[in-house]
Specification:
This is TetR family transcriptional regulator. It comes from Sphaerotilus microaerophilus. The chain is about 70% helix and about 0% strand. By secondary structure, it is mainly α. The protein has two domains: about 25-70, Orthogonal Bundle (Arc Repressor Mutant, subunit A), CATH 1.10.10; about 75-230, Tetracycline Repressor, domain 2 (Orthogonal Bundle), CATH 1.10.357. Helix 4 runs antiparallel to helix 5 and helix 5 (about 100-115) runs antiparallel to helix 10. The termini are far apart.
């Protein structure tokens, strides 16, 4: 067969992955993503379902097809947050951490708080009107206290911390308290200034600093080295 008689090669109908169109995000996912952004920027009480629909350029009826109310949106966002924060809080249970591990762990906790910061900034308002959030947040706070106590007991066991059981009990509660209400403190301190991620780094430092007086030897020196960048915070 001559080259002229050969059939022309068929162009493949498959597109290169480079040119494959991105799948369109589902409306439900877009509603949650946009709601989270608006809640975080403006505060949940200041965001209406109409504002969310306008931001998405969809009708309120389309929004209500996916979520019956703003509280439904909040509960869906909270469920995502709860899964993330519970996984983070469970991480130190696998082994006894050192001070550097705790430093990283606190930053991960505060990163999760930052991603869903509207929950913490408007915490009392949300809990006062939503029973589901009230009961589930109680569990999260209890888990924070348990994890803080577990970490400190581990440091006592390795000789890196010197504290009595009563001191550990108070310390764990105080660490959970500061972590939970740090954003409120930052907001009260400068209400007209936008809260940025640096505020969360300061929060991690101040939670860690609660344990500093009880640290011993190498762990105390390591904390002081890690903390140098936050001493003026």
């Amino acid at each position: 067969m001559s080259p002229a008689d050969r059939p022309a090669p068929q162009r493949s109908s498959k597109r290169s992955p480079r040119h494959e169109p991105k799948p369109r995000r589902r409306t439900r996912e877009r509603i949650l993503e946009t709601s989270l952004q608006l809640f975080n920027v403006f505060g949940e009480p200041n965001v209406t379902t109409q504002l969310i629909a306008d931001e998405l350029e969809i009708s309120p009826g389309n929004l209500y097809y996916h979520f019956r109310s703003k509280d439904d949106i909040i509960e869906s966002l909270f469920a995502d947050f709860e899964r993330q924060i519970e996984a983070t809080l469970a991480a130190p249970e696998s082994r006894v951490p050192d001070v550097e591990d705790i430093w990283l762990f606190l930053h991960l906790v505060f990163e999760g708080i930052w991603n869903y910061r509207f929950l913490y900034r408007d915490l009392n308002e949300l809990l006062s009107r939503n029973r589901l959030l009230e009961t589930h947040f109680q569990r999260i706070v209890a888990h924070k206290v348990k994890t803080a106590k577990l970490i400190c007991e581990g440091l006592v066991g390795t000789g890196d911390m010197d504290a009595t059981p009563a001191q550990l009990h108070s310390l764990a509660n105080n660490m959970a308290l500061v972590a939970t209400y740090w954003l409120s403190f930052e907001f009260i301190r400068e209400p007209r200034k936008a809260i940025d991620s640096d505020a969360l780094a300061r929060g991690a430092f101040h939670v860690m600093s609660l344990a500093a007086p009880f640290l011993q030897g190498r762990s105390r020196a390591l904390f002081e080295r890690l903390a140098r960048g936050y001493l003026d915070a």
